[in-house]
Amino acid sequence: MSRPPHPVIIAGAGPTGLACGIELKKRGVPAILIDKGCVVNSLYNYPANMVFFTTPELLEIGDIPMTSLNDKPVRGEALKYYRRVAGHYALDIRQYERVLRVDGSDGAFTVHTGTRVDGARAYAASKVILATGYYDRPNLLGVPGEDSAKVIHYYKEAHAYYGHDVAVVGAKNSAAIAALELWRTGARVTLIHRGEAIHPHVKYWIKPDIENRIRNGEITALFRSRVTRIEPASITVETPEGPVGLKNDFVFAMTGYSPDVEFLAAHGITFDPETRRPYTNPDTLESARPGIYLAGVLVAGMHTNEIFIENGRFHGGQIAADIANRMGC
User: Fold this and answer.
1) Could you give the angle at the alpha carbon of 275 between the alpha carbons of 273 and 277, nearest 5°?
2) Quick one: 115 and 261 in the same domain?
3) What is the model's pLDDT at position 144?
4) pTM of structure
5) Which of 99, 190, 272, 278 has the lowest CB atom count within 10 Å?
6) Is residue 207 part of a domain?
7) What pLDDT digit, counting tens, does each position of 18-56 carry?
């Protein structure tokens, strides 16, 4: 029986997808990585001045050392590093191509994709690895006006909002960082959060900063509150004292992100009803659909705070070992 032209298709070219491609290549198994965006697209969409909460060695893949000017690497250093790793291993990466669906069965899959240039494509594959992450699926507020262009789910940098009235929704790390940078750049910032206070897990060097700004009245905070309507020049916020209308130019909805559970379920991936984690073989990470593997944060289901680059990068070795063994490589 002849093998498909492309033994393995990897959906996702983030750090975990790259690690899968590298580990397969080390074992002599060809793979194509397909990503709807650029290489490490999620990292590219991180804030321009972002500092990772980890050390360089914990972001390394493919036995390639990562260097940083400081103890913690910044976004630009990470982008450069992963480009260098992808080039070093000459990975076959198809950027700006979206995986639409996977037909067929183990050993004889057809992966259907769409591109901006030549439309639909189809790849024959023996195995499929889904390493699509979750960063492109923001948790929506579910309120009228959320589809407005003034609503932003990905904070990049503050300069464009100087002198504007902005609302930051959320109280975890991304919300705190955005609120602080926007305030320091000259925006008038209101932070809105359903909870009682800034989240206790906000990083230790950020939490006192945002709390002091709130305490000093430099950043307005509305706790136990939620946005209920977004208008072109204002927002409505439900507070413990009742609804409040606020002048507003931009809303930063820093409410987190979720994996595309619907896509997984449509492809035969089943879930634990209580934890919403997909069923996988803990040793190989093969899903309940034979021949389809899950890598990275997808393994955690809705518990996206359990898997990061630091531990997701090891999934490549687990998966590649099983695939290579089955293919006799």
Assistant:
1) 90
2) yes
3) 98
4) 0.88
5) 272
6) yes
7) 999 999 999 999 999 999 999 999 999 989 888 888 889
